[in-house]
Design goal:
CATH topology of the largest domain: Creatine Kinase, Chain A, domain 2
Number of helices: 8
CATH superfamily of the largest domain: Glutamine synthetase/guanido kinase, catalytic domain
Order of helices and strands: EEEEEHEEHEEHEEHHHEEHEH
Strand content: 25-35%
Structural class: alpha+beta
Number of strands: 14
Distance between the termini: 54 Å
Radius of gyration: 20 Å
Bound molecules: adenosine-5'-diphosphate, manganese (II) ion
């Protein structure tokens, strides 16, 4: 029996790369093969040399189609099989191999906002709801909107076998979060991209869109981040290593901020549970710091740190490779 394989890849849209996908019918029990696409339609090639290559890197069951259908996350290559400039996964492979002995793990908190007619779901048309306060982890139809989509997405992630670890309603009405991990840098990143694709795809069924815009509404409304929780085997054993990682991030703060998602300065204002993007700070339980050490980690004297700076629209391949590079090279000393 042939099956439907949905090939998913990251395009060249600026400033924020977007997901694309198309379907291939694959024969019998074969693995999804290498495939191609028109790079001139995705900002990845010119019309005269338009062919780009899709190299499958992560395959899982497709919970939308069910049966034998599969989702196929891909890397983009040139036709000579070298990585395309938009292919940020290659550096993640390199960093993962270089620091494999430190066994880095990541848990990523993906925040996002549902939009209906280009305005947050549940908000009065072109108007504003009551101020923030009751919406975070709220219950009741006056406080949370889109729960049926969120539940369908959670089920889909579980059926796909992704390492999803939770969901919650967020501080701004119409905003939600799901978490993927803890997993290795490549696993968490491949799976986060697939989970994002599933979110967009499932919201389609409800005629709603989801956006990773880091600050969908200006003013006194929370932005959307992707808090990135990180540990190594040493950090999972010793508090010195936890502090060492937090200190290491301070030595390359500017380089990190630049790579934490377009528009990061719009979100990291110093208000709404953020630290200003121009300063680097870390602290126990501090949600106004760049990096938080969870209270339980201080009690246990081991565990992980939370980098609160990455935007919702960050590329997890980029963010996890940078954190591994910075923290693992410092901890190796
Ligand atoms: P918050 O309190 O900031 O909202 P969440 O519960 O949303 O935190 O997310 C915490 C994330 O950290 C989860 O994805 C969890 O799996 C992950 N995590 C837990 N332990 C570790 C660890 N040792 N290393 C990396 N990530 C971890
Ligand atoms: Mn969270
Ligand atoms: Mn959150
Ligand atoms: Mn968090």
């Amino acid at each position: 029996m042939s099956y439907k394989a949905e090939y998913i890849w990251i395009d060249g849209t600026e400033p924020t790369h977007q997901l694309r996908s198309k379907t291939k019918i694959v024969n019998d029990a074969a693995e999804p093969p290498i495939w191609g696409f028109d790079g001139s339609s995705t900002n990845q090639a010119t019309g005269d040399k338009s062919d780009c290559v899709l190299q499958p890197v992560f395959v899982c069951p497709d919970p939308v189609r069910g049966g034998d259908a599969k989702l196929v996350m891909c890397e983009v290559l040139w036709t000579d099989m070298t990585p395309h400039p938009t292919n940020t996964r290659r550096k993640c492979v390199e960093m993962s191999e270089k620091f494999a002995d430190q066994e880095p793990w990541f848990g990523i908190e993906q925040e996002y906002t549902f939009l209906k007619d280009n305005w947050p779901l549940g908000w009065p048309s072109r108007g504003f709801p009551g101020p923030q306060g009751p919406y975070y982890c709220g219950v009741g139809s006056d406080e949370v909107y889109g729960r049926e989509i969120v539940e369908a997405h959670l089920d889909a992630c579980m059926e796909a076998g992704l390492g999803i670890s939770g969901i919650n309603a967020e501080v701004m009405m119409g905003q939600w979060e799901f978490q993927i991990g803890p997993l290795s840098p490549l696993q968490v990143s491949d799976q986060l991209w697939v989970a994002r694709w599933l979110l967009y795809r499932i919201a389609e069924e409800f005629d709603v869109s989801a956006t990773l815009d880091p600050k969908p509404i200006g003013g006194d409304w929370n932005g959307a981040g992707a808090h990135t929780n990180f540990s190594t085997n040493a950090m999972r054993e010793s508090y010195d290593a936890v502090i060492g990682a937090a200190e290491a991030l301070g030595t390359r703060a500017e380089e990190h901020i630049k790579n934490y998602g377009p528009g990061v300065e719009r979100r990291l204002t110093g208000m709404h549970e953020t630290a200003p993007w121009t300063e680097y700070t870390y602290g126990v339980s501090n949600r106004g710091a760049s990096v938080r050490i969870p209270w339980q980690v201080e009690i246990d004297k081991k565990g992980y740190i939370e980098d609160r700076r990455p935007n919702a629209n960050m590329d997890p391949y980029v963010v996890t490779s940078l954190i591994v590079e910075t923290c693992c090279s410092a901890l190796a000393k």
